[in-house]
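Changelog note: in this version the structure field was regenerated for every chain. One regenerated record is shown below for reference.
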Amino acid sequence: MSSFLARATAAIRARVGVAGPTTVGRDAAGNVFLEADGRRYVEFAEADNPDPTQVDPMWQMWLRGNRPAPTPDEIAAREEARATMRKRIKEVQEREAREALETIAEFGSEHAVAGMPRPAAAAATAADGAADPKMAGEAMRRVDSDAPLPPTGASGTGDDFQPGKWTPNKT
């Protein structure tokens, strides 16, 4: 239906002598960016299922009048930057997966060291005297159990707080 209306509008404009829209460019998804009578708009490649969220930000800025139309060089540079970013993301994900497997192999359980920084986990599991074995056992019990952690010393609801009245303990 949309293409029929576009053809009909183009035919009427041609017959009346009014210039039609000017094609400014296309994006990688096949969307066509047009300008006519001071208006900028896009004809989506998938007219039945348009998705404005998939329009490149450079073209979105052009549609809003915030920048000139992107050049082919700018579009190519942006695509290259995206490819580089995807590659870096993949490398980081692979490194993190490898480190997770190494940690599991080293400590025997993914759950035993969940949320603990690597040095703390190593100190907590050391039984060779490098770390206090009593503390190592306590750290592992806290991680392995679902019991709440002991209070940190803060108590009260704060209802009796008065600004300027509290001073830290001087030791």
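Spot check on this record: The radius of gyration is 31 Å. Residues 123-131 have pLDDT under 50 and may be disordered.
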